[in-house]
Amino acid sequence: MASANLTIPSQPMSYTELVHVAQQDLSLSLPEQLWWAHYAFWNNDILATGIITFLAHEVIYFGRCLPWIIADSLPNVFRRFKIQDQKPPPTVHDQWTCVKYILLIHFVIELPLIVLFHPMMDMCGLQYTPPFPRLSLLSAQVALFFIVEDTYHYWLHRAMHWGPLYRSIHRIHHQYAAPFGLTAEYASPWETFLLGLGTICPPLVLGYFTGDVHLVTVLVWMALRQLQAIDSHSGYDFPWSLRRLMPFWGGSDWHDDHHRYFWGNYSSSFRYWDILMGTVAGPRGKAMGHNPRG
């Protein structure tokens, strides 16, 4: 990978030395210089993309789960914010079981897909060299990805509650009727793969037709989607939760009802598909005449 004003040195160099080389291009910001040095250090774009994507995924996932693990270990402090407060918090065994299973899924299912992502990026014309995209463009594209993924997630998730698909694919995710942060990606390999398509395909398709999607945008989108999934499974609803600022946002109170009643609230991020299609779960849905499972 080469910047417009930089070329990769022919002799091996340390990462620190490569950062100094990148600093010669005054048009690049510090993050862009570090990004260029990362690709130059590995000198293999597929490997460099795979490393940065997989590490970002692991750090963000388990880093965001950690506060919820702490909250579950301090019920005297946080129980008043727990949605299903009548149920005991997950045990250490529950948490550890999730960690082991999720690591298996991450390495066996997600890692190979991440390694294949760079060739797919090249096929679809996604960019990954500096400079980074404008914040306005990045924000608009991420917002579009949220809307597209939410639609895809709604219909696929709803289909997975059809008897045969539920028993063969989706039942694993519903092992915990009172979800906690780590359960966000506690799912069967097929569910992981199918739902993952809803995350990676929108950037690839948009990049194919516009040629104006950057890997940084994809990483930001993936990180925000992870944070949303973990928070919606956290089992906690705080006065400062995002859903109180954005009434159309799903949030943990919305998705918790899905796990509690095993029906409805199929969307991932928003509420409008469930409202429009009459699949609001729990007492809210019963009050709206959507279902009898209040």
From TrEMBL:
According to the UniProt record, one GO cellular component term is:
membrane
* Stretches assigned to the Fatty acid hydroxylase domain: 142-279
Secretion signal span? none
Cite the InterPro entries for this sequence: Fatty_acid_hydroxylase, Sterol_Desaturase_Related
The question of whether Nucleus is a record keyword is answered with: no
Q: Pfam families from the xrefs?
A: FA_hydroxylase
Location in or out of the cell: Membrane
Report the record's Gene Ontology biological process terms: lipid biosynthetic process
Answer yes or no on keyword Cytoplasm: no
Domain of life of the organism in this record? Eukaryota
Predominant subcellular localization, coarse grouping: membrane
Q: Which segments does the entry list as coiled coil?
A: none
Q: Which UniProt keywords apply?
A: Membrane, Transmembrane, Transmembrane helix
- GO MF annotation: an example: oxidoreductase activity
Query: What PANTHER family does UniProt report for this protein, alphabetically?
Result: STEROL DESATURASE
Q: Return the protein name.
A: Fatty acid hydroxylase domain-containing protein
